[in-house]
Amino acid sequence: MNLPHALLGVVLTGATLLPGTPATPLTRFYDQPVEWAACGDPLLDHVGARCAQITVPLDYSQPRGKTIKIAISRIKATDPGKRRGVMLSNPGGPGGAGLNFMGYISQRMTREVTSRYDLIGMDPRGVGRSAPVDCGWPIGHMLWSAGPTRATFRRAVQAQADLAQRCARREGDRIAHITTRNTARDMDVIRAALGEAKISYFGMSYGTYLGAVYTQMFPQRSDRFVLDSAIDPARYMAGSIRNSGPANEAALDDWAAWTAERDPEYHLGTTARQVRARVESLIKTPIRIGEHLVDERFLPMLIFTLLPDARENARLAARVRLLADAAAGKPVRPSADLEQELQFTLYGKPQGYASQAAVICGDAAVPRDPARYWRDIQRSRATQPVFGPYANNITACAFWPTPREPATKVGNDVPALIVQATGDTRTVYQEGVNLRRAMPAARLVTLRDVRMHGVFGRLPNTCVETAVNTYFASGTLPADDLTCRADPS
Q1: How far apart are CA 217 and CA 79, in angstroms?
Q2: What predicted TM-score, i.e. pTM, was given to this entire model?
């Protein structure tokens, strides 16, 4: 029997851990045994983690139908006497594999935290070892620039429609169930299968949206949540991408000023204006880089990928210098990191990022008229010459089936700690502010005057790490919102 969508969250909160809980079609998932084994991942094996597979329904409205398996890892709490419970996690994306994520994040956690929690990594449904989506895409992902002309935009429209059609042919109806709400339901099955009444959680970037959705669907199962580099649920996901246009232009200006001060090394201009002009000239025509021809769709993305972290300024300057040499006809070879990026972006090797599209397009509907996107692109060019055609571009979602469920509206009193850098280029600072408003029991930790996306575990910062570790260890949130600044070093 199909369950109405409005009832799904109610049904799923009834875990069999509580005495007298009536059996439901989901009971067999909540009560399933968990069998741990070696992970076969170098990092996880090094830290002594074990892995398991959790069976969940493909379609939660048909719990007796098809099932899939979700891969999880566990780094056990180091002090059983202090153990509080489990901490689930997500590294972002959407579409990011997270099985070994806690192997990295735990390195910035204090002993008080690691002694209290089993740290749980997870490949979300459709990703990695969890029934991965594979649409056979000839390129890596659907997020790219529309290019400089109406003709390049038309090619983008055709290419995006082709990506959506490939997923429909290859994945069929299955892809409609690769959504955030279903991943949140999977998390709750994992909670129950591990024998826990509640979960704590660390999520980064898209992982903040997943965490916020979980708190909305399962507020009574939510313990201590840290949401780092947050998405505004009301703007997810197309709105967040549009927000990133101005933020990346500002970051480009910041980087250009840094590069201009080092003109004897990079020879890209002695002023920020000259450096920016050089970048703008490079993205207008295809450039051959080694064996690759990179067109207007992807040239801006080669800059975009390094802007979120100011520590990458030198690497970005070297990359732009290489692009300038290539545009001048000089024989150049990509650096190892650029070669890897080109292989993924241009050819989808080793595998395309269709899982990202599945989640974004399956979570929320977007406008379908290409003319609307073109108007937005044209309006953006005056102030966003590099990234406006990316941030406002059409995606495969315009050609995707209508989502099975409405987008989740987040508004609850679950306590949480939100971490946001003012210079974030991916999920802009205002998004963290807006999530804080949607979750009034939360506290916002602002990292001021820092260009960084994803703070905890990536950028050493005493103030942020103290706030996060204190909250996980003791449950103590700051009395009010907190402002941090970069460490002196």
Answers
A1: 31
A2: 0.95
